[in-house]
């Protein structure tokens, strides 16, 4: 069988081209690996879950603190919420939050808290979905565009880079895979769709439909 099964219980992972989540997760994982390896100082992970990205942090990181609610799929250092972080002002050099903002009622409140706990010139590393089916219902409230994220980062005085992770062809391929994977007679087509859509996306793909976005921005002093 070519199709790669998902981990159970589910957690973020680096998928192979045989996985139903390859087009979605692989670009996010690789982008985070590149960025987190360069981080320094004290790191706060908002909505840390099982801390799947902690191992990516580089040798210059002094301390890691993960904040989340308690649950079977979370392993927080501190118990708390994204909207009311249980940490002092200006106490972290990096704030990381991966695929959390869509699950909070007020994303602005989360960014305000991130800005509060960051030191001057501190780094915000944020990933959010662009195109993705409803998940963790009913607590799934938002999807994001380049223009919405640019507005939010300006509003809270962040400046940096915004990167689309998976463009039009990745979206088309990933949505096809999600439809094919549950159907036994056609699920073995998933790896083929991954390879074709991934190649087309690397050749050139529009960003007006993006699977996900990554913010890599500094808090202005």
Instruction: Tell me the number of helical segments per DSSP (H or I, 4 or more residues long).
Output: 5
* Rg value: 18 Å
In the sheet with the most strands, the strands line up as 3-2-1-4-5-7-6
Instruction: Quote the CATH topology of the largest domain.
Output: Rossmann fold
Shape: globular
What is the β-strand count? 7
Account of the protein in words:
With 221 residues, the chain is of the alpha/beta class. Helix content is 29%, strand content 23%. It folds into 2 domains: 22-167 and 207-219, Rossmann fold (3-Layer(aba) Sandwich), CATH 3.40.50.150; 168-205, no CATH class. The chain has a 7-stranded mixed beta sheet with strand order 3-2-1-4-5-7-6, with helices on both faces. Strand 4 (92-98), helix 2 and strand 5 form a beta-alpha-beta unit. The chain is globular. The model has no long low-confidence stretch (mean pLDDT 95).
Give the topology, please.
Layout: H1 22-36, E1 41-46, E2 61-68, E3 78-79, E4 92-98, H2 107-117, E5 118-129, H3 146-155, E6 158-165, H4 168-180, H5 190-203, E7 212-219
Parallel strand pairs: 1-2, 1-4, 2-3, 4-5
Antiparallel strand pairs: 5-7, 6-7
Helix pairs in contact: 4-5
Could you name the key traits of this structure?
single chain, 221 residues, alpha/beta, Rossmann fold, 7-stranded mixed beta sheet
Brief summary:
With 221 residues, the protein is α/β, with parallel strands linked by helices.
């Amino acid at each position: 069988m070519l199709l790669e099964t998902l981990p159970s219980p589910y957690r973020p992972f680096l998928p192979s081209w045989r996985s139903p989540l390859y087009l979605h997760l692989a670009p996010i994982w690789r982008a985070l690996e590149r960025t987190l390896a360069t981080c320094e100082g004290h790191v706060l992970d908002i909505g840390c879950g099982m801390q799947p990205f902690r191992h990516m942090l580089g040798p210059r990181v002094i301390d890691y603190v993960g904040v989340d609610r308690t649950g079977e799929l979370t392993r927080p250092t501190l118990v708390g919420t994204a909207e009311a972080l249980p940490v002092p002002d200006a106490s972290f050099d990096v704030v990381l939050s991966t695929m959390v903002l869509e699950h909070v009622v007020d994303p602005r409140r989360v960014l305000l808290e991130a800005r509060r706990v960051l030191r001057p010139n501190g780094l915000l590393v944020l990933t959010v979905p662009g195109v993705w089916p409803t998940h963790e219902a009913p607590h799934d409230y938002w999807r994001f565009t380049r223009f919405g994220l640019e507005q939010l980062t300006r509003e809270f005085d962040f400046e940096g880079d915004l990167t689309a992770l998976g463009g039009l062809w990745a979206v088309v391929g990933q949505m096809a895979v999600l439809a094919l994977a549950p159907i036994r007679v056609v699920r073995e087509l998933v790896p083929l769709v991954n390879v074709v859509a991934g190649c087309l996306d690397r050749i050139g793909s529009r960003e007006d439909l993006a699977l996900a976005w990554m913010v890599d921005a500094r808090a202005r002093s």
